[in-house]
Amino acid sequence: MVEGVHQLERAAAGDPRLTGVRRIAIVPAYNEEECIARVIDEIRAFDRELEIVVVDDGSRDRTAAVAEAQGAHVVRLPFNLGIGGAVQTGFRYAFEHGFKLAVRIDGDGQHDPSQLGLLLEPVLAGEADIVVGSRFLSKNGYQSSRPRRAGITILANVISLLVGRRVTDPTSGFQALNRHAIALFAADYPHDIPEVEAVLLLHKHKLRMAEVQVEMRERAGGRSSIGALFAVYYMVKVLLALFVGLFRKNVTPLEE
Amino acid sequence: MTPLVVSIVAAIASVVLLLVVLELIRSRRLRERYALLWLATGAVLLVLSAWRSGLNTIAGWVGVTGYPPAVLFAVATLFILLVLLDYSTVISKLSDQNTLLAQRLALLEQRLSERASR
Predict the structure, then answer these.
(1) What CATH number does the domain located at A5-245 have?
(2) Are A254 and A95 a contacting pair, CB within 8 Å?
(3) In chain B, what residues touch A248 (CB-CB under 8 Å)?
């Protein structure tokens, strides 16, 4: 488990290991016309060569138009699929266009692109197939509301038990992936609160996952799509999916 | 008083329902979101079958003192109604999405063929 050690080491845009490596940022966005432009700018500020695909999940506002104006690739879904469907669309795009590295930055501004170096380091060092930015590896920074933290802690404990490793932030979408992980998620990605089930999926396909400590921000614009009552419903659904998922047969990841 | 046979048969049936639904989820033929109501149905029926004194009490509340297992029928029917209602809304949404996909696809093909014939 590669936690802790890499908190201080981070990849940088000029890193020689990145030379010639086609990489892309997947930015799922739903009604984020207010902050999508800034998210795109921040990603560019981190690395000019990091291509950007904004997956517009059936937004009713001008998210797609704004993203196009900023020069990002934009994929417009005909209707809302939810975060799982939208992010998987991004993975399919990444796979089909031959990208070797992908990162996910949510269009609502919660993920801070300047910290991408922390996420990329273990992947570039060949130590993990996927790196997840965890808010809870150590105890600082924006910690999210109390009921949400309680829910996340429960899920973290359950997931840690199921995969036999310590997982601290199973709901974090702030991730960096190599080609293996891209191929897996392009073929098979869960639909609701996908990040949690995805941890189990990675484990079943024997892909290596690492967590690094990151700070996340409050949502810059727009509204959260999960209300308090739905949170309970989602918890039940996720727990069910996890336990049943243990016994599932694996789907084959996309082949080259 | 509920005959013991009825309780046993109902309990077994409930367990079978639960197992079938879980297997359908496991083999990816049923998504969790649509299975939740079925699992709730199976769970509630299982509890009512196994908890014989509870079943009799509830039967008393609704005036079914003659044959308490009638409550099992009523509960099962109620849950089935809920499932059907839920599925009706799901089908409606899928219809709308289907229409939208058909339209977008047709327009896309039109654009492609127009481009090809230029």
Answers:
(1) 3.90.550.10
(2) yes
(3) 26-28
